Amino acid sequence: MGEHSKALEFHEKAHEIYEKALPPDHSYLALSYNNIGEAHHHMGNYSKALECYQEAFEIRKKALSVNHPDLATCYNNIGLVYSNMGVYSKAIEFHEKAHKIYEQVLPLDHPYLATNYNNIGEVYHHMGNYSKALEFYEKALKIRANALSPNHPDLATSYNNIGLVNNYMGDYSSALDFLDRAHKIKEKALPPNHPDMATSYSNIGLTYNNMGDYSKALEFYEEAFKIRANTLPPNHSDLATSYNNIGLAYNNMGVYSKALEFHEKAHKIYEQVLPPDHPYLATNYNNIGLAYNNIGEHSKALEFYEKSHEIQEKSLSGNHPDLALSYNNIGE
What we know:
This protein is mostly helical and 332 residues long. Helix content is 81%, strand content 0%.
């Protein structure tokens, strides 16, 4: 976290100078907005990041040709923020705009195209369209396996994402295989407290959780939490994800009071940093409901299930698996 806040401080100092010394449509100003946006993005300040990325885009679209790669970078960054904000239709729209440019100006095996395929796959993943997500993740992997060294972090990203989608599709042994490949690369390439290491631990934990090995899942979730607690601001959504995962493990182990405690910690963060109709909030309400249901407070559980359902009806497609789960919980 200190890294990104320090970066933000320096990018803002540079920006102040550029604003005084350069015309308002200068390419250095666009780059400056982009850098400030990236720092906010890493810190979880998504609305601020979006604002900066849009400023960069406004300058670049006036100065550059319609198929310039820097314009594709703008579309890509805006798409990533929309994805983090849970606005998936917008995210797809911007990633596809980036894709059209990359297809025109880059060779078909260029790493930027792989990143773009990966980003589109991630949005489909969030939308619950796992087969479509896998299709795009595999396109990304094909390029990366040919273009990158075998221990490149982007290759780890591909293995990680394919592992995750296999997990959601119920193929746990394949999921663990891909997640383990990703983890081995990250161990070699990254410092032990890097946020991507936390993601790796978290995803392996999720797979063990789905396999029913809850104590093993908790062990990996706690490793992820240690890294995030030391490297992220206290209201970062990834920290909330850790609280949420630890809560689920405790719930599955029958320690319901602990489960509720961690889900409520997650909720405090999500309320601060996410829009009120974000799918992560729906998941969180559902998990709080589950904990109340398990301690026998059924009316309280129903209240949270209904809050979850209300968000999911607005933000998810009609055939998303989470919506089915929501109907099921209310029915119980």
